[in-house]
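To whoever picks this up:

The parser on our side crashed when reading a file containing two proteins. I've narrowed it down to the boundary between the first structure block and the second sequence. Both blocks are reproduced below exactly, byte for byte. First block:
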Amino acid sequence: MKEHRSALKVALRVAGHLAAIVLIYLMFSFSLFLGLQVDTTYGNIGMVLSAGAALAYVLRFIRNR
């Protein structure tokens, strides 16, 4: 029973990391859309925000290891 909980915990952790990476990618691609189609200022702001989100995710991931 304990192995089942451990496997479930690992699966949820992997799913959480995958969801975070997908959301950061969507944020990045939306900032590209804003920069190329709407206004370059919005694209630059989006790039800074998505880079900050990626950096925060990586630093949190490294800190937990």
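<<boundary where parser fails>>
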Amino acid sequence: MLMFLWGSKDGLIKALLRRTREDELGVLAARQPAPERDAPDGAARRTLALAVLRGALLDLLATDDEPRVTGAVALQLSLLRAPR
């Protein structure tokens, strides 16, 4: 049963995570300026931001070190905003 929930191609958790990812990427896309959103690397930048946020959430849950995790996310966001 656990394999069905998590590991199989049609697992319920995989389906939920896929749907959540699509929703989260949609929110991030809506916040990007159109030229950035539509640029060739627009989707990659959204994916990077989502990966940072998910990793930070796991780190926060594991360590409860909110100031450190918040600082790391703020730094990454400033790097994403930097001119290319």
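After patching the parser it read the second block fine. Residues 9 and 15 are 9 Å apart (CA to CA). The chain has a mean pLDDT of 82.
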